[in-house]
Amino acid sequence: MSKLDLSLESIRAVCEKKCSLKSCLDLQTEILRRRGRDYINMSSFCERMSQAGDSLDTISSDVWLEQIDICEKEGTTFMDVKKTDIRRKKTMGAVGAAVVMIIFFGLMICLVMWANNEDPAPAGVFWVTVGIFCLVIIGIVVAAVGRMKEIKGGEEDEASKY
Known about the structure:
Radius of gyration: 26 Å
Structural class: mainly alpha
Distance between the termini: 18 Å
Number of helices: 6
Number of strands: 0
Strand content: under 5%
Order of helices and strands: HHHHHH
Helix content: over 70%
Shape: elongated
Largest sheet: none
């Protein structure tokens, strides 16, 4: 996100002349105004909850959830817990897959080295084979870093709007 909180998709649309800068900024102004109203409404909601004096043991969650539903029907947008959880799951999935593949190719390098000790291959064949596995590992790391940037940047979330 940029300083104006413009999405990459919006910036790209302006650069590709799919929309004017004015219309892009007008839309972003409305988004920021709506977000500001949401923050004010959520702040007010938190104050009401705090003034109610409930503790974790005595809180009437059904009443407060009903109040949240009413606020949402009036237009306030609360944090989407599902979206937050999905980002965490996507991150863990990407990291997990990268780690598994790096371990696999690391083991392949070890296997090639062991086989080379048992029955030496020509030096060129040995180093090309090890080099290919090392390049694959580097590719996995680069892809994983790129995927983390995509997840963190919310590009999928932006794309899912269209």
